[in-house]
Amino acid sequence: MKKQCKSLLALLAFCMGTAWAAPSAQEILAASDAVRNPDFSFGLTNTLIEYRKGQQTDTNTLAIYSKADASSGQFRSLVRFVAPARDTNKLMLYSGKDLWFFDPSSKASIRLSPQQRLLGQASNGDVVTVNLAKDYGAQLAGEEDTQDGERKTRHCYKLALSAQTPDVSYPRIDIWIDTGNHQPIKARYYADSGQLLKTAYFRHYQRQLGQERPTETVIIDGLDPTWVTVMRFTDWTRREVPDAWLQRDYLPRFKPE
Question: Is 81 part of a structural domain of the chain?
């Protein structure tokens, strides 16, 4: 009987220890990915607006269709240019680690780099859907209070991310994630040299597709804080994204809905 009691107490202590174990840095990062991205295929509109010294200088509107790959867990995305008129129906395909640009006027598809700028401070890699936990190793750098995009103080985990593959947009990222709800608050993106490339604030959380998600990202240049790009996400919808859309050979045949 005593042995049984000891066994039960040991089991209870183990369960309590497991239940109260702090999440790992990688688990925190994966939880923040789930806040940013649904775990099913979806579509949305991404409107990019570039500002220089407070004045709007350019804009672009993209329709994005994203679907997680069953084997890797990373997203594959088709991006259709909606505006301006000169770019309408141009396409970008992000599949695996390949990024392709297709121009219907020339019928040619060319390979792009995720690091290449699309508009202002937004790179090609910034506009496609990604799960950071699939491409980066995370280390907990501590907990601290920081201001979010609405100038509210949030208590956050600070994670230091290191790229696990050479094909990602940024070799290093620091990201602040709310300790209470795993909402990403801000991130800093660095070059190999350690130079700060940009700072992003994830803000204007709204309930979209069953979760409170950021509907706006403000990106500030690492050298010139007056150079700002805003990405606004609207028209969220759960939808089927056919596998055919995510093939390079299909790009010439794609027809917008």
Answer: yes
